[in-house]
Amino acid sequence: MSFHSITYNEKYRFATLHNYGCTFRCAICSYKLRSGANGTPGLSYPKPKRFLTVPEMKKALQSVSVDTVYFMGGEPTCSKELPEMLEFIKNEIGAATFLGHTNGSQLPIPNLDGANVGIKAWDEQVHLDYTGRPKELIYQNFEAAVCSGMRMKANIVYIPGYVDTDQIESLAEWIASIDVNIPFHIMGYIPVPGQTYSRPTDEQMTAVVKACRKHLKNVAKSHLTSEEALDLTARDDRFAVRMIA
Ligand code: SF4
User: Which atom, in ligand 1's list, is nearest to the CA of 131?
Assistant: First the structure.
């Protein structure tokens, strides 16, 4: 799809381009927290009424001072304008470019400095069931992006009974085989409408982090409630942004 809005954080000098659309069909998509949709797998918030043109996006970015431009989704790599915007941001604005959230299905990309890949599962069958796609391409792309010199991060949602500790530790071990310094973030599952899985307990979160720290040097966690996830500005001023397009 395409980008529908741009936000700006003056304090930290970054802008974010927000895309609508995704190539995966995750039943557990966290965007359902906001939309409340519980039937269709995948991205499920209403389609924006209009999308931004490339000249509109360029003008908005030129109107502010930025060190970094992030791209978010859905899945930002499914925007056909992404390559032109990356080229513009690197060469005209002179800012760093980063995919703030991606499913990893299209990496590496020219003029992109880094990406935070949400890897869904280690188990092949669970990955297929969760996303509708095999895991092989995502894992290959992640490794290729690291080898290309991109600054990579990974994250996973811990869903007890579905994406369990053993899968998350296996993923951490695999990431460590590429580079033990790659940041790894474990997010406790936040129940979405229409799904029966439960949030992990505090003890389960502590145990999974401990297991991953045996392999990786930089493991973090978040364990938000639904209410906290829907009001991130109250927890972190990086979410305090204003709309510039
Ligand atoms: S990859 Fe992310 S945005 Fe796309 S459907 Fe899955 S959870 Fe939602």
Answer: 6
